[in-house]
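Milestone 3.1: sequence recovery, worked example.
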């Protein structure tokens, strides 16, 4: 579809689009990247030399999830701390058994609840605290926490297991909260840039998951010491956090980034019932300085992104319903052979590694293909179609089976294929919906919309993980 002149604008009640071949309906259905990019007429648009900005956002995306993934990847270390070191020396098996048995549940609660609260706080801070303050502060806090965790690896915590558990949970709360502010702030910042930069940040997050899965495989293959593995995980996370700080400070030095990071002023957003000024249809809808609000208008953002938000919530709901609760309990049909492939490496390879790389591929495809558009009915149709994956996983070799005795797929190839479909569709569809959000609102609301869009995945994850326990009891 041909794209008209960048200086030609079409103003809706709360968004700005470029006309394409005189067809408003066509722009609503497909809206390619050039059509969605916020661009100021009259200013020359610089080139992203050597894809420097793209690579920086990709790396920041890795940094947004890699530390948290490494934190939970050190599963054997936490088991050692809460079981081995305590039970071997202090004999408090009964007292501390609940810590070990429900540790992952504690982690989920300690990460999800603060994340939701911090997203709300970050939305309120959009016009109060500059983005660089929020980003650098959150990175510094995460780096400090990981340095503390590195120091505690070699400390004998057998005499204060409960205290160490408290320190760990507090660390999870701090890391999760800081990571949420960091990632939502960066994603909000990418709202000012062309969509490929938002896609880079989201794909970087998938790369963080893939790297953690590779690290887990390497650790299973070569590691001999649980504590040394934990030091390696935490140290790599700390190094990458420091790298993210350096890359973020480098970002405004790039001419391409400076062009899109120019200040945007708060605007008044007209609802559907209000009429636009007739005397100056092309002028920006700015409020007088005395009427500007420090809090971005939430209602028009929610109204404009409601459809995309529902798609994101449902995508993450289905994915978290299956992964990891259901998929990690699917065993190899040849497990009785005792080979490392069917026992030790089956779940890490066919679930974690395969899913994360399929997710990464799905997200990366959106760099070249962006269909269907944000207004297309095909997008929610594809999102609902993913529901079929739930019974497909349930009919694989899930163990133990209590109620659902039928096992339809009698091969290890099937769960691998279904995992690829789950990850690929999750990555592609969720990335499309996420990068569209900041592009269907005025530029002045792009950052706040990015923060709001970050809420939808967490809501979907919370809903899916809570329902996954019910689904497990039905199998």
């Amino acid at each position: 579809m041909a794209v008209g002149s960048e200086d030609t604008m079409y103003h809706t009640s709360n968004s700005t689009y470029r006309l394409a071949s005189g067809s408003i309906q066509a722009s609503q259905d497909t809206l390619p990247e050039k059509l969605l990019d916020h661009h100021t007429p009259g200013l020359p648009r610089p080139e992203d030399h050597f894809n420097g900005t793209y690579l920086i956002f990709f790396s920041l995306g890795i940094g947004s999830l890699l530390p948290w993934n490494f934190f939970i990847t050190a599963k054997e270390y936490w088991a050692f701390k809460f079981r081995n070191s305590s039970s071997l020396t202090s004999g408090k098996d009964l007292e501390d058994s609940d810590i070990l048995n429900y540790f992952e549940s504690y982690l989920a609660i300690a990460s999800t609840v603060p994340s939701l609260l911090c997203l709300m706080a970050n939305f309120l801070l959009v016009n109060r605290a500059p983005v660089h303050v929020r980003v650098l502060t959150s990175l510094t806090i995460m780096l400090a926490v990981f340095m503390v965790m590195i120091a505690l690896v070699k400390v004998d915590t057998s005499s204060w297991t409960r205290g160490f558990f408290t320190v760990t949970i507090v660390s999870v709360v701090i890391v999760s909260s800081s990571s949420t502010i960091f990632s939502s702030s960066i994603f909000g910042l990418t709202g000012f840039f062309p969509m490929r930069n938002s896609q880079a940040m989201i794909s970087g997050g998938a790369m963080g998951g893939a790297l953690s899965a590779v690290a887990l495989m390497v650790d299973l293959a070569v590691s001999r010491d649980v504590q040394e593995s934990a030091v390696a995980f935490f140290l790599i996370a700390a190094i990458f956090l420091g790298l993210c700080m350096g890359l973020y400070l480098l970002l405004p030095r790039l001419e391409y980034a400076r062009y899109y990071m120019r200040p945007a002023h708060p605007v008044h957003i007209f609802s559907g019932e209000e009429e636009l000024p007739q005397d100056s249809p092309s002028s920006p809808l700015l409020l007088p300085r005395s009427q500007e609000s420090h809090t971005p208008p939430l209602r028009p953002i929610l109204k404009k992104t409601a459809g995309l938000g529902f798609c994101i919530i449902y995508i993450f709901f289905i994915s978290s319903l299956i992964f990891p609760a259901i998929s990690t309990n699917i065993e190899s049909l040849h497990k009785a052979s005792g080979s490392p492939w069917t026992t030790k490496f089956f779940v890490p390879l066919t679930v974690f590694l395969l899913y994360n790389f399929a997710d990464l591929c799905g997200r990366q495809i959106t760099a070249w293909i962006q269909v269907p558009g944000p207004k297309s009915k095909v997008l929610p149709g594809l999102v609902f179609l993913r529901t079929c994956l739930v019974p497909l996983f349930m009919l694989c070799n899930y163990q133990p089976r209590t109620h659902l005795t039928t096992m339809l797929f009698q091969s290890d190839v099937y769960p691998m294929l279904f995992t690829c479909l789950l990850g690929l569709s999750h990555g592609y569809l969720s990335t499309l919906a996420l990068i569209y959000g900041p592009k269907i609102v005025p530029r002045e609301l792009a950052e706040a919309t990015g923060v709001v869009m970050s809420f939808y995945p967490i809501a979907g994850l919370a809903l899916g993980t809570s329902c996954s326990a019910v689904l497990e009891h039905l199998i």
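The longest strand covers residues 9-11. Residues 1-35, 85-91, 266-291 have pLDDT under 50 and may be disordered.
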